[in-house]
Design goal:
652 residues, globular, 25% helix, 8-stranded antiparallel β-sheet, 9-stranded antiparallel β-sheet
């Protein structure tokens, strides 16, 4: 076994690897960028080495610097985590050339599965079913359009070097093919440096079911399936294991196909075979097709660990150190059901835009497993994926596990940034999902309800007002003794919630005894028997505050801004004249020019953030008065980009 390993990653997965390594008595070395100098994974590791600037290209993608750090610290192996260099065969070659062990598959195995078109050919040879499509080298646009026609619409355009939904476009009719192809190729070039695409038949009621495999370089076993059908923008949101509706016949067929795929490339370590499944008429053994193989540990691996009792990171270390596979296929079984929800700093009502911020408050329920790379006080950086945590639950049945997931999400408290926690809680209770009727389009079909901004009721607003006045302690304890004069005093506070400003009046009737007026509604709030009560009902709300921002956690996290009574409200720019950056990012392209006449919905610029492109559209008809940014600029959230003015000619 290794004495010391270096983890070539950051955040949640680095912390996860450190946890298992520590349990095995293996010392760990963390690497960190300028932005991660005080990060959680740095604090947890036995040693830490600075490797460069905040941008990944200046740090976590510098393989030579990482390898030198391993040599300098006496590490014997390098664990890549996921993302960054985890599926880079040149990095694997360099690690081994330096006399170190790469804790993962061989460079040849990664190359074999690295390009989707070549991988599909290889899978066909291994008798693994593949989706009908074109996977060839001819990238001529006219030729590709003809291939799409031959396959039959709808089709999917997919980057051959892609992953995570990048470089992927759904095309439902021939008229849209050319624009979709150009968009997919542009995004693929940005994300992977390779514009090549393949074209596949689109399955109309698709489910995304993947199989966890583990090999020793010759033989492989599977650790059953995960259902990852709940997706938005082709990125997974909630994963579960086992898949709902799975039959013994289909599980055996998929497991056998996954093992054949792994053994065909002499796979070593943890990997995932992803299948697209036709869910239109139940799960059938002839209704699944190979999509791709991820030659690394997956983000969603904890659900497999909970139903099998296997620590996959421990397996990775043991097999990389030369041990045999820890278990045979017939020794692996499924116990219960597990769910994982990915908690991100993102603005769901604004289209899931990535967010930043300092985590002023962070608390999770004790009954859930939480894999996280951040702590209270840490900052969500614009440089990296905005994941806060993975919330994982396990129960004896799917129904029990899903109820535990919703409850855990409702008791997850994150202050200091917007999150998708409310969205995840609504999704966990969505009727189709509850009964196991899932496919990859479920979220989009119900997005209006799922992405709705949670609005605080008058009771939650009362709690916010009392917190703002210091009358409701942040820890929920008894309030400080209040001096009451001959007649009760009434105080007012101004709050902003969901861009709406309102007044709350609080009459202090005694210590821990208040009458709160919110608009036309009056509530009696009191602290007694070591608990807070509103109108005679016990309240389980929690609160957090950082400066003028406070959050009431009560089923959802309701954010409020406390308005300084001396503040003069700035006049808002009238008529939607300003196009501002909705998040921190890189200005990828600017199409607007001064004096240009534009129509509502016209694309004015493209902002790239978290490796995704976001189009900035004209909010109304008008004329471009000023372009205040240039291509290649790095901008912060709220930066003014383009100014519009009325089209005076049209008005005349």
């Amino acid at each position: 076994m290794f004495e010391k390993i270096l983890i070539a990653n950051r955040g949640e997965i680095a912390c996860r690897v450190i946890e298992s390594a520590r349990g095995m008595g293996v010392k760990t070395v963390a690497v960190y960028s300028d932005a991660d100098a005080t990060a959680k994974h740095v604090a947890l590791a036995d040693q830490a080495v600075h490797i460069g600037g905040a941008a990944p290209a200046e740090s976590y993608l510098k393989g030579d610097v990482i390898i030198q750090a391993a040599l300098d610290t006496g590490a014997q192996g390098i664990h890549p985590g996921y993302g960054f260099l985890s599926e880079n065969p040149e990095f694997v070659d360099a690690v081994e050339a330096a006399g170190l062990t790469f804790i993962g598959p061989s460079a040849d195995a990664i190359r074999a599965m690295g390009l989707k078109d070549a991988a599909k050919v290889l899978m066909e040879e291994a008798n693994v079913p593949v989706v009908p499509g074109y996977h060839g080298a001819n990238q001529d646009r006219v030729f590709l359009a003809k291939q799409a026609e031959a396959i039959g619409y709808p089709v999917l355009i997919k980057a051959v070097a892609g992953g995570g939904g990048k470089g992927m476009r759904l095309v439902e009719q021939a008229a849209d093919f050319e624009d979709a192809l150009a968009s997919a190729q542009g995004e693929a070039t940005t994300a992977f440096g390779n514009p090549d695409v393949l074209i596949e038949k689109y399955v109309t009621s698709p489910r995304h079911i993947e199989v966890q495999v583990f090999g020793d370089g010759e033989k492989a076993v599977h650790l059953f399936e995960r259902d990852c059908s709940l997706q938005r923008r082709h990125q997974k949101v909630i994963e579960e294991a086992p898949a709902p509706g799975m039959t013994a016949e289909m599980r055996a067929a998929m497991g056998d196909a996954a093992v054949r795929a792994a053994e065909a490339i002499n796979y070593k370590g943890a990997g995932t075979i992803e299948f697209i499944v036709d869910g239109s008429d139940g799960l059938r053994a002839d209704g699944f097709w190979f999509m791709e193989m991820n030659t690394r540990l997956q983000v969603e691996h904890p659900v497999t660990e909970l139903i099998t009792g296997v620590d996959l990171v421990e397996w990775q270390l043991r097999v990389a150190a030369g041990e045999a596979l820890p278990r045979k296929q017939d020794e692996l079984t499924i116990t219960g059901h597990a769910f994982e929800a990915r908690i991100y700093a993102e603005d769901v009502p604004k289209g899931f835009l990535p967010a930043t911020g300092t985590l002023s408050h962070l608390a999770f329920p004790s009954e859930a497993r939480v894999d996280s790379g951040v702590r209270a006080g840490d900052t969500i950086s614009p440089w990296y994926d905005p994941m806060i945590a993975k919330l994982v639950v396990h129960g004896p049945t799917r129904d029990v596990a899903l109820k535990k997931l919703e409850r855990a999400l409702r008791r997850t408290d994150v202050g200091g940034t917007v999150t998708n926690v409310s969205f995840l809680a609504l999704l966990a209770a969505q009727p189709n999902f509850v009964v196991g009727d899932v496919d990859t389009g479920l979220i989009e079909r119900h997005i209006e309800k799922l992405a709705a901004q949670p609005s605080a009721c008058t009771k939650a607003r009362s709690v916010a007002a009392l917190t703002a006045m210091g009358l409701w302690p942040l820890d929920g304890s008894a309030p400080a003794e209040t001096l009451v004069l001959w007649s009760p005093l009434t105080h007012s506070v101004t709050l902003v919630h969901n861009d709406h400003r309102f007044e709350v009046d609080v009459r202090v009737d005694g210590t821990g005894d208040y009458t709160v007026t919110v608009g036309a509604t009056i509530h009696r709030v009191a602290f007694r028997a070591n608990s807070w009560w509103i109108d005679g009902t016990k309240v389980l709300a929690r609160t957090a505050r950082e400066g003028d921002e406070l959050t009431v956690f009560w089923g959802n996290g309701y954010r409020f801004d406390v308005v300084d009574p001396l503040e003069r409200a700035d006049e808002e720019l009238a008529g939607g004249n300003l196009i501002a950056a909705p998040m921190p990012g890189l200005v990828k392209a600017v199409f607007a020019q001064g004096g240009q006449h534009v129509a509502q919905g016209e694309r004015l610029a493209i902002l790239e953030a978290m490796k995704m492109e976001h189009a900035l559209l004209a909010p109304r008809d008008g004329v471009v008065a000023e372009v205040m940014v240039s291509e290649g600029a790095q901008v912060e959230d709220g930066t003014a980009l383009i100014l519009l003015e009325d089209d005076t000619e049209q008005a005349a």
